[in-house]
User: What shape does this take?
Amino acid sequence: MHVDHLTFAAGPDGLKAEAERLGELLGAKFRDGGFHPRFGTRNRILPLAHDRYIEVVEVLEHPAAEKAAFGQAVRARSEMGGGWLGWVVSVADLAPYEQRLGRSAVVGSRHFPDGRLLEWKQLGVKGLMSDPQLPYFIKWTSDESVLPRALGGDLQLIELEISGNEDRVEDWIGAEVDGNFDGVNIRFTSPNGQPGLDAATFHTCNGPVRI
Assistant: This one.
């Protein structure tokens, strides 16, 4: 089980401006990630150290965005002004989670600007929508050469601040968080407040940056 990536929904200025703003804060440049045809979204990504990355995503005026849970989730967060949508955990096998949650994973894909295809399966976006402190799960199915982690990166994700309840998150993922989860410090704040991913802190060449 691996803290795979973080998703940031673009605000009213759009995907390009949001990626540039975050890139300036982190001292790095986001790359064009391409279009998600099954979800009606597109993204820009920033590879991090330890096989992780950040994606900034925006919803498109596309029929798939009205049907797919991910498209709906991105639209809802963007209409709130944008910000952290959530965190994503990659696993080797989704079957135990499908059985426990009583639902099937959906296939996701993304076309790179150069035409290459990246594919995966994901599960739990509806859980994220109803309780934004929860991560959703992903299993990569494409060749290693096209996975985001193949791009490499120097920035390190060192902490997530989550407004919510540790017991609830541990029950959802089926593992103990216990302050440190897969090398990332998980800090729970405001257990009685609005649940969600409040902030992430990164180690950069200019020191720690909290977003």
Remarks:
- The helical segments are 15-26, 63-67, 69-79, 95-101, 125-130, 166-173.
- The chain has one domain: 2-154.
- The mean pLDDT is 91.
